[in-house]
Specification:
mainly beta; 1 helix; 88 residues; 9% helix; Thrombin, subunit H
C-alpha cells in the first residue's frame, strides 16, 4: 500500500488498482476510488488538500477533486493510450 496522510483524510493505494479514502478523525473508510487498470504507484495531494492525483503502472493519471471524492468523479483522466498518442 502507498499511504498519503493529510488532515482530515488519509489516502492509500496499491496493487488492487484502487485508492482508499479514510476519515482522519476515526479512520473510518469513506470510499474507494476506481479507474486504474494496474497497480496505483503514486499518490500526490496539493498544498491546500483540494486536489488528489493518482498514477498507475498502466500509464494512467487520474485527478480527483477532494471535496467531490465521495461522488467518485475524476476531474481529469489521462490514459496511457492518449498520452502516447499526444506525444506523436
Amino acid at each position: 500500500m502507498l499511504p498519503v496522510s493529510t488532515s482530515p483524510r488519509h489516502y492509500a493505494a496499491g496493487e488492487d488498482k484502487r485508492v482508499r479514502v479514510w476519515r482522519g478523525d476515526d479512520s473510518g473508510l469513506l470510499c474507494i476510488l476506481k479507474g486504474h487498470g494496474d497497480w496505483v504507484s503514486d499518490l500526490v495531494i496539493n498544498d491546500d488538500n483540494s486536489i488528489l492525483c493518482s498514477a498507475s503502472l498502466d500509464g494512467s493519471i487520474i485527478v480527483w477533486r477532494v471535496a467531490r471524492v465521495m461522488r467518485q468523479e475524476p476531474v481529469f483522466l489521462k490514459s496511457a493510450e492518449t498520452f502516447l498518442h499526444d506525444r506523436e
